[in-house]
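Q: Please design a sequence for this.
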């Protein structure tokens, strides 16, 4: 267990918390302590099973059967030069699924983009689809840059510039026990102010609809007490 993280710790942030608190603080370099719960890993060069083992080693826990893992991923050099990022691992590759979606804040401001990917074992284009999936989040360069983005009901993704130094990735397995991921903004999920510092959940038994309402009951004392 990583130093300072108590037994039973569960990490269930909303999408708004992931982008506005964790990713933006990482991009701005304003909170080094967030790497205690979200490590920096080159997620696209490592097989999914190894990623979960790396998270266990660096943070002392995280996901499990049907639970998510979270990582910061630095921009690849080839992507910085204008090329396409490599998503090939030793045993397979990540393939994008669907169209990137806009992520909104509690007050309906577009704050970033979400891209979903599926891991295939083998070599493209004839690989075998696996249960591993990943959401990649990127923040708009400025929160107001997404003002021209489409509504949540559809349309092409916003043309606003993105912060690309780091993305935030959520790794999980597709199974019957997967907890429903909360895409609601902070205020809607917490029933409180959107400015509250996000927090981990406590261990509890609940239906998927209740999971994230329960997770808002504990604030980020772990980070604040470092």
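A: Design:
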């Amino acid at each position: 267990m990583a130093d300072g993280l108590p037994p039973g710790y569960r990490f269930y942030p909303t999408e708004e918390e992931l982008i506005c608190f964790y990713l933006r603080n990482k991009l701005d370099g304003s909170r080094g302590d967030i790497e205690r719960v979200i490590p920096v890993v080159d997620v696209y060069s490592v097989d999914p099973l190894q990623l979960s083992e790396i998270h266990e080693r660096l943070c002392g826990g995280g996901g499990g059967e049907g639970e998510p893992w979270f990582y910061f991923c630095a921009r690849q050099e080839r992507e910085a030069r204008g090329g396409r990022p490599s998503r090939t691992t030793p045993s397979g590759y990540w393939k994008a699924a669907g169209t990137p979606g806009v992520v909104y804040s509690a007050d309906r401001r577009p704050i970033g983009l979400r891209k979903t990917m599926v891991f295939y074992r083998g070599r493209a284009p004839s690989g075998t689809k696996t249960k591993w999936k990943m959401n990649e989040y990127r923040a708009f360069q400025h929160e107001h840059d997404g003002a021209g983005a489409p509504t949540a009901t559809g349309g092409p993704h916003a043309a606003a510039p993105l912060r690309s130094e780091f993305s935030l990735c959520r790794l999980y397995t597709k199974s019957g026990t997967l907890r429903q991921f909360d895409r609601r903004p902070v205020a809607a999920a917490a029933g409180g102010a959107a400015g509250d510092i996000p927090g981990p959940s406590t261990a509890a038994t609940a239906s998927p609809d209740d999971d994230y309402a329960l997770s808002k009951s504990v604030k980020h004392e772990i980070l604040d007490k470092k």
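Q: Thanks. Anything notable?
A: The radius of gyration is 17 Å. Strands lie at 69-74, 92-96, 101-104, 110-121, 128-139, 166-173.
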